[in-house]
Amino acid sequence: MIEAQGISVHIGTKRIVHGVDFSAGPGELATIVGPNGSGKTTMLKALCGELSHSGRVTFNGRDLKSLKPAEAAAIRAVLPQATMLSFPFTVREIVKMGLIGGRSGVIGPEADLLPERALARVDLDGFAGRFYQELSGGEQQRVQLARVLCQVWMPVLDGRPRYLFLDEPVSSLDIKHQLIIMDIARDFARAGGGVVAILHDLNLAAMYGDRIHVMHRGTLDTVGAPKDVLSDALIERVFGCKLRVGAVPAGNTPFVLPQSAI
Amino acid sequence: MTNHIAARRSSGLRNAVAAGDRSALARLVIVILAVLLGLTMLFSLASGASDASAISVARGWLSGAGEDALRVRDRIIINDIRLPRVMLGALVGASLAVSGAVMQGLFRNPLADPGLIGVSAGAGLGAVLIIVLGGTVLAPLTTALGTFSLPVGAFLGGLAATLVLYKVATRQGRTSVATMLLAGIALAALAGAVTGILVFVTDDRQLRDLTFWQLGSLAGATWLKIGAVAPIMVLAMAATPFLARGLNALALGEATATHLGIPVQRLKYIAIVSVAASVGSSVAVSGGIGFVGIVVPHLLRLAMGPDNRYLLPASALLGASLLLLGDAVARTIVAPAELPIGIVTAIAGAPFFLWILLRKRGVIDL
């Protein structure tokens, strides 16, 4: 269980996130949506211990601040929005870094093959020998996800659930890979882990999210099941955009929804 | 699928490399470099202005016999002139190359080099302060530290320079290349200016010592000097294996390194202190020898990849070999006189540095 109370983050004198209470349980895929600049990423960084904040965050009842980096790494893995890299590492070397400090939960000869398994999982089988910097943006994003998966390969370890934090995991992916990645996140949650994912695609949030957390102007505006949260009124109030939820386009404009995947 | 991967990975070095696993290749490179260093040390022992031959002396060592006049002269040349110089050259070369690799990991930037960004200049200033003021203002310090006062002074100067540089060039966990290089230029200029002031207040004997810093040389290596710096250098190098995995993670950024379980602040402090100690003690005994710290790790990354677990020991080996070869050139090219080795490394290293810049122009966002 992740529980956060009264999270506020200031960067300089600017208040980015204010008084957020957040919780996400094992087995749950929690999504965070909200307009640009509403504090989603800042909130996620506070939750995973990257930004200093007021308030309290606990993982499985333990205060995050009391954990050593290696202990925290065994409980949660974090996929950032973008990763800059200055040295010519191969894809396999990057993915293997997921095993540096945490505990994958896989031991023995199997552990040696984990990078390849993680790469196959994100549909990058055969990419292990390529140079990371030569890949496309979407491929790089999936390599980073494979690294993050290695870190917490077993969603439950020693009887305790582990957590994935994903900051826009599908932002530069095509529709096929969006579905693959979201399936991975859902499987992780179904296997007993917890997932917190920032998404911009409301359709994916509705399709995969057990609960949607709507951020607006640095506060948590609404939390609930997708069908309760996504309403015409909320979209207009939070996103400032008159849209009708569930309406099909007029005439014969084609539209493709992830929900229509067969 | 798993079986197919296992088959691919177990079938030899070339296939492992093709599958993105360069660890076996890196280990092979390290073995080759160790052999190379051994050969280089023998070659350095055997070559020089005198015709003393290492083989004849080695034969003398082994047989333990024959104290004729020629052997005695050879033995003195080898044991008290060439051997300390070879040991010192290997230590300095290894220290400079390793601290270059550590700095590059710390700054996440292949262009960081202690000589280029003012760390050596800071260490030089520390050493010059000890030389010039050691008899007067700093007398209590030099009395207390004895032969260690010069390396300690250089260490403190290098540490101050590294800390200032890190504070100036790094914001929110990101190091700006432009800021780092420019701040390094400013630091080096400042240290140079203060050194210049000290040169004015110095006497003749000190002046000769000071000239030596500006050029960089392994001449005058003695067992006493080695005794003063070897413990510091070995300690600093012994710390680096503990940094390797952390520096690898740091390549993905400070935040990601923390998420991966690396205590990033502690890693940075250990890295900075070990760089300052290595560079400080190198500068204390041999002055400013440039470009070893940038050329060696760069060549090795091309050969075996950037994994610091292998890069750091390999840098030590190749750095030692290259500096010894450079010193062999310095000793023999204008024999019986000799060039300061700093000139040799600069002539070879500066064009190499420009080549890296040209190749990477698109990659490095200045």
UniProtKB/TrEMBL annotation, chain A:
InterPro entries: AAA+_ATPase, ABC_transporter-like_ATP-bd, ABC_transporter-like_CS, P-loop_NTPase. Residues 2-242 form the ABC transporter domain. CDD domains: ABC_Iron-Siderophores_B12_Hemin. The keyword Nucleotide-binding applies. The keyword Nucleotide-binding applies. GO terms for molecular function: ATP binding; ATP hydrolysis activity. Transmembrane segments: none annotated. Pfam families: ABC_tran. Keywords: ATP-binding, Nucleotide-binding, Translocase, Transport. Part of the ABC transporter complex HmuTUV involved in hemin import. Responsible for energy coupling to the transport system. Belongs to the ABC transporter superfamily. NCBIfam families: PRK13548.1. This is Iron ABC transporter. It comes from Aquamicrobium defluvii.
TrEMBL record, chain B:
The keyword NAD does not apply. It is a multi-pass membrane protein. InterPro entries: ABC_BtuC-like, ABC_transptr_permease_BtuC. GO terms for molecular function: transmembrane transporter activity. The keyword Zinc does not apply. Keywords: Cell membrane, Membrane, Transmembrane, Transmembrane helix, Transport. It comes from the Bacteria. Its main location: membrane. It is found in: Cell membrane. SUPFAM superfamilies: ABC transporter involved in vitamin B12 uptake, BtuC (SSF81345). The chain crosses the membrane at residues 24-46, 86-107, 119-141, 148-166, 178-201, 222-244, 269-299, 311-333, 339-358. GO terms for cellular component: plasma membrane. GO terms for biological process: siderophore-iron import into cell. Belongs to the binding-protein-dependent transport system permease family. FecCD subfamily. This is Iron ABC transporter. It comes from Aquamicrobium defluvii.
